Amino acid sequence: MTKILKPLTLSKGRRLIEICSDFLVDAMDLKVIGQGLGSRETGVIDILAIDKDKLYITTVDTSDFSDALFRSILAYRWYKENRGLIEKLSTSLSGTDNLRALEPSLVVFSPSPPQGIYSALKELFSLPVYVFRFTLFGSETSPEIFAEEMDASLSTSKPTDFDTASIRKELGIEASNLTDEEIKEFLETFRG
Amino acid sequence: MIKKPDASRGIEEVSRYFLTGARKEGNLIQASSEGNVHTLSIIHLNSISTQAFLVANMAIELSRRRFNTYIWDCQDQVDMGARHMMSGLSVKSEGNAEYRVQLYGLPDIRIYTPRHEHKMLIKALEKTCNTLHKECFVLVNDNKGAEFIHGIDASMYYVLITQTDRMSLLRCYVQVKSMLLRTDSRAKIFIIFDAREEGLAHKISVELSYFLYKKLSYPLIYLGCLTRDEYMMQCIENRMPIVTSSDASMAKGKLIFMLDRILGEIKTPTTNEASAR
Questions:
Q1: pLDDT per residue over B92-117, tens digit each?
Q2: Smallest Cα–Cα separation from B193: which of B167, B223, B220?
Q3: What is the mean pLDDT of residues B134-150?
Q4: Which of A4, A5, A171 sits opposite B170 (nearest CB)?
Q5: A135 at B interface, C-beta within 8 A
Q6: Where are the domains of chain A?
Q7: Which among B48, B82, B59 is positioned nearest to B262, based on CA atoms?
Q8: B-chain residue closest to A176, CA distance
Q9: What pLDDT, on a 0 to 100 scale, did the predictor assign at position B88?
Q10: What is the ipTM of this complex?
Q11: What's the CATH fold of domain B33-276?
């Protein structure tokens, strides 16, 4: 099927949450055990996902980052107050009965998280926090998500050293106007 | 003497009925009152023979749809290039580095080799198409990124086929960037992955689109994965087209589907093109 992968802004928050939920399952190999848990007044968990060690209380930024962060904190509070209910729910829905043993963590998906937010949150919160920057592509009917984790340790570490001159020679692209930084960035993106 | 309508049909009409899609809903690009030349450059970054195979089959499929089709064969060497890939058909030399592929009942395909001066050739073809009031296609069996296209005042469409290892993808990125620079971002580039795993290719297409948009503000037009079945490999080996065969083949279906999508995109001018006019 032809896909014209232009950036996309989705008007429906519900759909966006579903797309992020699919990403957690497909790309992160997590198990989603609930969506939209709680109420607007007391806190809502957009997506609740688990793996064998952790529980991921996930909030999706549908309007602005500060609102999403506040909702994330409320969602954690709601989780703490309703842990028993969630455990029952997860047992009946997914057969997971060891929820109490899992370490809770906060996940925020945002199209434009502020610079430096990851390290700031890491200092403030005692529980693990993950911030994903995402971009949507395609059409409303067939959207695609590209998400990357903002990680302070990654951004400060020295990037892999590529011999750009020999790469240029090997690929026969000496005449191209690609900068060394562009080549490195490209190869880092596709290192998987 | 008044000529009575024939009870029988001529070979051309019969051929058109059975060999082309003309009897169906109609071609995606309708004949316009004025002729128009669409230049479509085809580049496989990893395989010259697969590239020639695609050029040959796209040309035959366009001819099946009654378009006047020309091939500018920059890879014309001994046992390589588009005319060699069609050597199972009737290919006649017209002299002056020009060849004619006869398809009987369908428009012939003319092949020009690099000895022709490209600008003059395109101008001549434009003139012919305008006289005929026909939509024409020039398929370029490309050599190293079609530097010669630069400066030609014609539609610029590219089909880039690449494998999905990261070095091939980097070459693909370089090609896209230089094509956009050369054409003031007016080029429309269709990407096809030559990969076995459709799922992995799909994931890579999203990553590539992210990078292209971030760096070049260019939306990727992804046509999917090239399917290589046994039948396609036989066709390449025997220098026979796949699109006219009656045998069922995934590769054939996919190829025709991709050409449908390309024609669909050519029909609709992009915003860039519209604003450039």
A1: 888 777 889 998 888 999 998 877 66
A2: B223
A3: 72
A4: A171
A5: yes
A6: 13-153, 158-192
A7: B59
A8: B174
A9: 85
A10: 0.71
A11: Rossmann fold (3.40.50)
